[in-house]
Write a structure and sequence with these properties.
alpha+beta; globular; 270 residues; Beta-lactamase
């Protein structure tokens, strides 16, 4: 814990908290692990897990039509439906570009709600949050970026991603495997990558550089960061995950601080 507190002490933020875990237990926290904060686009990972639960329950199928004409659930969840980032309009044919789309994720949540005949928030809560004991995690806005949580709850979720219990390992593996792997596109705030591998809501590190994870993270690392100053990554090679929250929006400070932090985590806890 002293290491983690020291590593975030010089971040140019008013408040931050971090945590590291393996599949069985937390390896350490820095800052207040129970302070509730917005997680912005890290919310998409919880949407993704809800989708996997719904897929296993046969509420949805990944390849059923959803979104604009020619698009499927798989397209929506992998940012390849052709929908614009924050406007409900089509800017490319499905499956031709990786266009990061909040609208696409929210359209999926509407689709799931219609198929399940219940609000998406209910499916999220009953299918993911309650089984994992994430009592301080709530949906307060659009599902694509409107969840608030804590380090303690995010560590619970990260352990689920390291050792799934809500879905089978094979189902989680599908979500963390590149979908339409040849597509190029932009990682918001970082740059254009060709290709830009993405799973079912989970960004996949691959060999992207620069990146918000560390140089020591394996190409198989998956996760997401949020504009609010939040991140969650899982590196299956060493079996470690790290999460972070802060009160400063993502910008160049995070691209300097987070990779250094990630490399320290890997060196200290591997």
């Amino acid at each position: 814990m002293d290491d983690l507190n020291s590593w975030i002490s010089d971040w140019p933020v008013g408040w931050a908290a971090v945590g590291v875990t393996d599949a069985q237990e937390s390896r350490g926290v820095g800052g207040d692990p129970d302070r509730v904060a917005p997680i912005a686009s890290v919310s998409k990972l919880l949407v993704g897990m809800t989708a996997l639960v719904a897929w296993e329950e046969e509420t949805i199928d990944l390849d059923e039509p959803a979104g604009p004409p020619g698009s499927t659930v798989r397209h929506l969840l992998s940012h390849s439906s052709g929908l614009a980032t924050d406007e409900d309009r089509v800017v490319a044919p499905p499956g031709t570009r990786r266009i990061y789309s909040n609208v696409g994720i929210d359209r999926f949540c509407e689709h799931l709600a219609a198929r399940a005949e219940m609000p998406f928030e209910t499916y999220l809560r009953e299918g993911v949050l309650e089984p994992l004991g994430m009592a301080d995690t709530t949906l307060v806005g659009p599902p694509s970026h409107g969840i608030r949580s804590t380090i303690s709850d995010l560590l619970r979720f990260a352990r689920e991603l390291l050792h799934p219990t809500l879905v089978s390992p094979e189902t989680l593996a599908e979500a963390t495997t590149p979908q339409f792997p040849e597509l190029k596109g932009v990682v918001p705030g970082i740059g254009l990558f060709d290709p830009n591998p993405w799973g079912l809501t989970f960004e996949i590190r691959d060999h992207k550089k620069p990146h918000w994870t560390g140089d020591g993270n394996s190409p198989e690392t998956f996760g997401h960061f949020g504009r609010s100053g939040s991140f969650l990554w899982v590196d299956p090679k060493p079996g470690l995950a790290a999460v972070g929250l802060a009160d400063r929006e993502f910008d160049l400070w995070a691209l300097r601080a987070w990779p250094e932090f990630s490399d320290r985590v890997l060196a200290r806890y591997t």
